[in-house]
Every structure is written in C-alpha cells, then in structure tokens.
Amino acid sequence: MRKFLTAVALSVTVAALLLGSMTRPSQASSHREAPLITADPLADNTDVYAFRSTESGRTGFVTLIANYIPFEEPSGGPHFYKFDDNVLYEIKVDNTGDGVEDIIYQFRFTGFSGGFRNPDTILGMAAPNQATSNPPTGGIEPLITSLDDPDYNEPQFYSVTRVNRAARTQTVIGSNLPTPPNNIGERTTPNYETLAAMAIKPLSNGGRAFAGQRDEGFYIDVGAVFDTLNFRPKGGVPTDTGGSDTTAGFNVNTIAIEVPVQDLTRTGAVPANSTASDAVVGIWATASRRSTTVLRPNGKNVVTGPFRQVSRLGNPLVNELVIPLKFKDFFNSSSPSGDAIAAPFVLDPQLAQLIKAVYGVNVPPPPRNDLVLIFATGIPVNGVTGPTYTTFLSDGKPHEMMRLNVAIAPSASPSRLGLLGGDFAGFPNGRRVFDDVVDIELRAVVGGTPFTPDFNVAPNNKLGDGVDRNDVPYLTAFPYLGTPHSGNTSTGKPHEHHVIVTGTPIP
C-alpha cells in the first residue's frame, strides 16, 4: 500500500511539472464557484450524483443525476426556470481510467413551437384558458394538471442521445420528452408531485429519464464555509449539528437518467464482482455553449460554431475548496484527462491549513497521498477497506471524477457518512442524494479517516458544518430528489426559514 501511494504521488508530481505550463483555452467557466460562470446560471452545474438504483425492481440500473441553475427562488416568475435551448448538457462516463469519456449521455432542449401556447397572457409559464373554465366565463380552474394541458404555456421538450466513442455510434434513446412546469403554487400546479411523475419517461434502453425542477438536495452551511470557516454555533470545533442549511428553501433544475449497469462498463457486461476489472466507472457532468452568438433586435439570436465547455463537475466541492482562484475557470473548461495541473493542490490542500489556523487542529503533512486516492485515482483494494472494496480507476495519472463501483449493491443500512460510516455503497463510492459529502470531505481533508490513522481522532474525525440532513425529504424512487418548494406558500419565502433543519437524517 505504501509503495502504491508513493508511486502515485511521484507520477502526479511529475505530470504536474510537465503540464503546469499548459495554455489556457480561450473560453472557460464553471459552476458558480468560478468567476465566469456566475454570469451564466443556466449552464451552471451545481451537483452530480451517481449510485445503484434502490427503487424496487430496478436493482440492475444505475441512476445518474446532474443539477443546474443554483439558488432558484421558488417564486421567481412569471417565466420561472427552464433549461437553455442553446446549451448542450452532458453526463460523461470514463470506463477505462484515462480521464476521457467513453460513454456520453447528451441532453438537448427545445421550447414549444412558436414559443408559447398563448402569447396574449400576462402570466408567463401559466396561461389561464378561461374558455375551458367552469363556469365558462370569468372563472379560472386549477390550471396545469397535465403536461399537455393548454394552460401550460411554456412547455419544454428534450432528447437523450447515447454516444459510444469507441464504437463511434450515436443512438437517440429518447425524443420529444416533456419537462414539467415549475412548482408555481397550489392554484396553478396542484398535486405537483403527480404532475412531475408524468414527466418520468421510459427510454429505449430500458431505463428512464426525467428533466425538471426539484428541491435543492445538497445541504450545506454555505455562509459559514465562505466566511472563512466561521461555522455555527460559534466557539469550538464544529461538528454535526448547530449549523444553518443555507440552501434550504431553494430549488434546482435536474437532469436524471437511469441506465442498465452494463451500458456503463468497459466490457458491456455486468461485472462478475466488485474487484473485477470492469467494475468501476468514472462520472462527471458538463455544460457547453456554441462559440458564437449574434444578437438581433427582434430577439431571434443566431447561435453558431462548435460547442465550448463552460461548466464541469465531478466530485463535490473540488473546484470550490481545492482549486485556487487562478485555475478555477480553466479547471471547468478542461477534461479529467489533463488534471495533473491540479495535483499540487490536492497533495497540499490550502483548506487543511485554513482549518488548522482557525481551529488549531493538527493535520497530516504533505504530500497528501490519501486525498490523491479519494479524488484523483480511486481507492485500490487495501488492508483498511478490505478485499472487496475498491473505487480505483486510473492509468497511473490523476483524473478528478466521481468513481462508482457498479458491482457494489445498495446498502441495507445506509449511512449519510458513506464509507466513513461503514457503508460501502456511499460516497466516495459514487454519491447518493442523502450522502453528507460536506462532513465527509471536511474530515478527509484534516485526516480524520482510517487512511491517516494518526489523525483519525477527535476532533478531526468529528468535524462537520453543523448540517446533517436536508430540509425536504428525499424520494424513495426515481428521480430521488425531493419535491421542489412551491412558489406560493402560507409562510412566506421558504428560504427565510432555512435556520430550521427538519427531516429524519440517515444515520
């Protein structure tokens, strides 16, 4: 194990020196934590999830989720939030370990022909059709009750294409799939979850797809993290509780796809066991825009040229809390194949030193080979996690992507702390919607894991942001993320109450 870590560290350092002078692409951006993407929220990738499906009857499938558009105010009408028809949204899979995508799921969106069903309404996404109301004149019935309801004024549709780079094939596995409206309010979108369920559509590969608004399921005390780790309650090293879920009350736009296990693997088969050579895949999501946009006075802009990647996300919080400011835009325009440039920041993370300075905890000295395993190469079979656990997928170089062992079955006793909670099916083996990735990563960065036993003691292995659950219950079925907050509630703006953490946590 020690020889392996040393070899990885050496290869990472050498590669970083060789690639450190790489030329930046002319166009670069990222999810909100990089400077350029802050002006482009419709292409802003906020979270990625990948896990074996847990819904009854779907054990042979993997669920992949990519969220976009951060901090959606639920009452943000009249046009609310939609995917951008000019953005190419993609979920990418590397099954060979070179940091290059082998399988791609592409999502392209289009609006309603002509733009709106009723261009004369004043209300935007909802268009009261008084001719069909009861009584016939003057009344307004509960409005959007189906996806083809004439009152759904700004519908959006999308296609799903599976690209196999090795076979050089592109297969459309879903077309003209509808998205639901936003959760506007009880008059306009009554029984919202029933409406959203209508948008779960079968794909030709036996899987399913959903695209639409969901609750922001990533729970974190954002305010405390970026106020130079000023966690709540004040005083002492922060742990599991006492924080404020800053993302509570907000929504996101979700792309979710469920695919057969064998559609992801290098061999095109279900792996024989968890240590088989085809058991681990790497996953990340991107958003890309055309290189040229011509603005026209009538609003019918011309968008041309090749697609340029403007957002990228694999493991959570890497660009925010590992990559320095000067490389954030570059990182999110690049591919995992070129991640050696980021290796020095993993081997000696600034975040660990900040935590040490703020809270006085001892942290492991560099080089941080333990973090290289978690984020850059995957974890090989070793004496700490045992003979059946591995997320290793690498050609000997660092590639930042979420790694999922598709042969590890869903846990019968899930823990929000994933591997740190003894749950092999959780982060960093993929990421489920309820995994407490903030607490897991904070503990990892200060060495509070079995991979650095000298530091796997309190307070390092108890560190947390004080938020241990989401404000909205997750679903037990696809697409798993919770019901989005309504734009019209009896208690005012939902996010005004984010200091109250509700729900039942996963242990």
Please provide a brief summary of the model.
The chain is α+β, with helices and mostly antiparallel strands and 507 residues long. Helices cover 14% and strands 21% of the residues.
What does this 3D model show about the protein?
- The chain has 507 residues and is of the alpha+beta class.
- It has one domain (2-112, 155-497).
- It contains nine helices and twelve strands.
- The strands form two sheets. Strands 3, 4, 5, 6, 10, 11 and 12 form a seven-stranded antiparallel β-sheet that branches.
- Helix 1 crosses helix 8.
- It is globular.
- The two termini are 30 Å apart.
- 49% of the residues are buried.
- Residues 1-31, 133-138 and 495-505 have low confidence and may be disordered.
Q: Helix amount, in percent?
A: 10-25%
Strand content: 15-25%
Shape: globular
Largest sheet data: 7 strands, antiparallel
Multimeric state: single chain
**N/C terminus separation:** 30 Å
- Rg, rounded, reads 23 Å
Specify the structural class: alpha+beta
Let me know the number of strands. 12
Q: What's the helix count?
A: 9
Could you name the ranges where pLDDT drops below 50 across 5 or more consecutive residues? Answer: 1-31, 133-138, 495-505
Whole-number mean pLDDT? 88
Tally of domains: 1
Order of helices and strands: HEEEEEEHEEHEEEHHHHHEH
Topology:
Blueprint: H1 2-19, E1 45-52, E2 61-72, E3 87-94, E4 103-111, E5 156-164, E6 169-178, H2 192-197, E7 201-202, E8 208-215, H3 222-226, E9 251-260, E10 280-294, E11 302-313, H4 318-321, H5 325-331, H6 343-347, H7 350-359, H8 369-377, E12 402-405, H9 437-445
